[in-house]
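Reopening: structure tokens for the FE2/S2 (inorganic) cluster complex, inputs below.
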Amino acid sequence: MTRITVTVDGAKYSDDVEPRTLLVHYLRETLGKVGTVVGCDTSNCGACTVHLDGRSVKSCNVLAVQVDGHEVTTIEGLATEAGLHPMQESFHEHHALQCGYCTPGMIMQAIDVLNTHPDPTEEQIRLGLEGNLCRCTGYHNIVKAVAAAAKAPGAAAVSSSKVGD
Ligand code: FES
Ligand code: FES
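Re-run output (same inputs, fresh job):
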């Protein structure tokens, strides 16, 4: 076992993990952050996307030991007492989900897209989300939601800024 210390959604955790433990399993099984989901375990679907030091990563593609000393933000760290994150609001308003399984990862990736492209074209949104699969929506409303969120104050906020609060 290896001791790691990591900040997740603004709280600091120290835990012993096996060197082979994936970040997504650490988040779900050790920390109970089940808002981050597993769709494939093979880096294909993006359902497990979280932010690591403010940039999106597929957490099934990262070992827990690799986040020692770093900051992770999950879908559970986006909302504040003031309400949902603007990207969450926009997904809600634009009906950008059906079953919702892809949604946590899709939202985390969508925020990363706006961090890279604050005023994105439709093509930039589609390219930015190409690693996140949705089997329900046909993507149309997801793209609309991200485009609308780009106009909302705070939608492109790097979520790690919340971590340090
Ligand atoms: S569960 Fe990580 S990419 Fe599918
Ligand atoms: S809403 Fe069902 S997989 Fe995307």
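The domain at 2-77 is CATH 3.10.20.30 (Ubiquitin-like (UB roll)). The pocket of FE2/S2 (inorganic) cluster (ligand 1) is lined by residues 38-41, 43-48, 58, 60 (CB under 6 Å). Marking as resolved unless the reporter disagrees.
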